[in-house]
Amino acid sequence: MKITIKDGLPYISVTLIFRSQQISFDEVIIDTGSTGSTFSIDKLSTIGITPEPNDPIYRVSGVGGSEFVFAKQIESLILGNLRVDNFLIEVGAMQYGFNLDGIVGMDFLLQTKAVIDLNRLEI
User: Fold this and answer.
1) Could you tell me the pTM of the whole model?
2) How many domains, the chain?
3) 79 lies in a domain?
């Protein structure tokens, strides 16, 4: 899958499946400095991903600041030909001052043994 560089950041497209509903995101950053994969609640709510009483809530911090997120088990996270089923994502507001649907972190990259080729801009 092709990586697009915008403002110096590597963007890709991903697809999430939750309770047999599918949603695609085009503004997702590959972040090897993030332990988890986080996605915007604004778009995920369109397929029924909302906080539920048993969802764990915790604070995540990074260069863009910190925010509270909740964890949600999804059926699949798909990035090109890379796929993880029964995957735990973080869901938050993601208001970092620029257009962003999500972050694919090391949890996904390690499970899929992803190879990031910056020369070809491919993953």
Assistant:
1) 0.92
2) 1
3) yes
